[in-house]
Write a structure and sequence with these properties.
It is built from 14 helices and 17 strands. By secondary structure, it is α/β, with parallel strands linked by helices. Strands 9-8-10-11-7-12-13-16-17 form a nine-stranded mixed beta sheet, sandwiched between helices. A six-stranded antiparallel beta sheet has the order 3-2-1-6-5-4. Strands 14-15 form a two-stranded antiparallel sheet. β1 and β2 form a beta hairpin. The chain is globular and about 70 Å long. The chain starts with a helix and ends with a helix. The structure holds adenosine-5'-triphosphate (ATP) and magnesium ion. Adenosine-5'-triphosphate (ATP) binds next to α8.
Length: 408
């Protein structure tokens, strides 16, 4: 780590602990920056630490970064804060460890505008009468969404979804209490065996994080192609091709929707396809890919694992193109193998509620399902269902029966 970053970390921590607001307490914060630099400079003289080249330049760059988002900066710096939203200048909310709270931060209308402008500076996007919505990625990977009047009644609505990685692997999820070791071992085997997995859940329930952890379990030599609305996944493999959608320009041209990405992905010789979230017609393209034998995973917004299966049966109908339930329902039954339902609990924790098998049969419009794991009295326990494609597990070197009996 270079010298500036080291001091920056120290300064941020000091500001957070002292409760200073870089937007208002400018003198104190400038003083703190100077003092931290001087202190670091002295320590580095005694060796062991990289030297600071130019103290004045360092002070300026430090100031710019710590005072970056003014009164909101403290929430950017607090690792427990996941999301920040503003309903009106005097109503700033944060979600801390999954629980929403109204903060004591009071802004003015001009400050809100100014903050948004500063956040948008690096993205090259803007909000105004002609484009009252903006969706942008900030320099630190956070996502910004803004809506302004007259779409809203009076105020600018701002949402910042911070980029906080809570988990990179199934083991991390076990550590966080999201699922049990046994369920994680089963999912790991299912990914190795190349089963098709659907991650379902409500808003902010941890779907994308679960998908990312499942992706991390893919054997390291496979080629993974990902298609997302905006980049969120971070996959550690050596052979990853990641694509994101493009918004239409002001003239309404140049849009690249998710459907297109999924179609293109198939031409890129993937051994796995991962789609961030299916909402609409792209579900048809994904289904066709999975049906052709390409293993894949995606997330879908749904309040239960069974609802997710139903949704996978109806969303493809949105594609029009003479797609009928007669084709879709049996295709879903044979193409989706496992559904994982995640939920944001009232205490802010994220939990796997159930793991469902889709054995491959359907009756009329109903896809048959079986519970593999479900939550009973707060604990994720083994139910009696089995996943399909036992042969694939065997080929990958797993004995599903003993894995599910907890002997694996
Ligand atoms: N298992 C977990 N334990 C604790 N926190 C988690 C867990 N999974 C995700 N989170 C946190 O919850 C927030 C939402 O996570 P994530 O983006 O994965 O959810 P999502 O369901 O995909 O949300 P969206 O509805 O926006 O797509 C993030 O701040 C993330 O760090
Ligand atoms: Mg998501």
């Amino acid at each position: 780590m270079d010298a500036i970053r080291t001091v920056e970390g120290e300064v941020r921590e000091l500001i957070r602990r002292s409760g200073l607001d870089p937007a208002r307490d400018t003198t104190e914060v400038r003083h703190l920056v100077r003092a931290a630099l001087k202190d670091y400079d002295e320590r580095s003289m005694h060796g062991g630490l990289p030297l600071l080249a130019d103290l004045d330049a360092a002070a300026k760059s430090l100031w710019d970064s710590v005072a970056g988002y003014g009164a909101l900066q403290q929430y950017f710096d607090d690792p427990r804060v996941e999301e920040i939203w503003i309903n009106e200048p005097s109503k700033v909310f944060v979600a801390r460890d999954g629980v929403a709270e109204l903060t004591t931060t009071l802004l003015t209308h001009d400050e809100v505008r100014d903050l948004v402008e500063r956040m948008l500076k690096t993205s090259g996007r803007r909000v105004d009468l002609s484009s009252p919505f903006v969706d942008a990625v900030l320099a630190d990977g956070s996502r910004l969404h803004v809506v302004i009047p007259d779409i809203t009644r009076d105020h600018w609505y701002v949402n910042v979804r911070k980029f906080v990685v809570k988990a990179d692997s199934l083991e991390d999820l076990v550590r966080l209490g999201t699922l049990t070791t046994q369920a994680a071992a089963f999912l790991d085997a299912a990914v190795h065996a190349g089963l098709n997995i659907l991650v379902a859940g409500g808003t902010q329930s941890g779907k994308t994080t679960m998908l990312n952890c499942l992706a991390a379990a893919v054997p390291p030599r496979e080629r993974i192609v990902t298609c997302e609305e905006v980049f969120e996944l971070r996959i550690p493999h050596r052979d990853v091709a990641a694509m994101q959608c493009r918004q239409p320009s002001l003239e309404g041209t140049g849009e690249v929707p998710l459907r297109r990405l999924v179609k293109e992905a198939l031409r890129m010789r993937p051994s796995r396809i991962i789609v961030g979230e299916v909402r609409q017609a792209e579900s048809l393209d994904l289904l066709i890919a999975l049906n052709s034998g390409l293993p894949g995973m995606c997330t879908v917004h749904a309040n239960s694992a069974r609802e997710a299966v139903t949704k996978m049966c109806t969303l493809p109908l949105l594609a029009g193109e003479n797609v009928s339930a007669k084709f879709v329902v049996p295709t879903v039954a044979t193409s989706i193998d496992i559904v994982i339902q995640v939920a944001l609990e009232r205490d802010g924790s994220r939990r796997v509620r159930e793991i469902l098998a889709v054995p491959g049969r359907c009756e009329g419009d109903v896809v048959e399902t079986a519970d593999i794991f479900l939550r009973r009295e707060g604990a994720l326990v083994r139910a009696d269902g089995f996943p399909p494609h036992i042969d694939r597990f065997e080929r990958a070197g797993y004995d599903v029966a003993s894995l599910l009996a907890g002997l694996g």
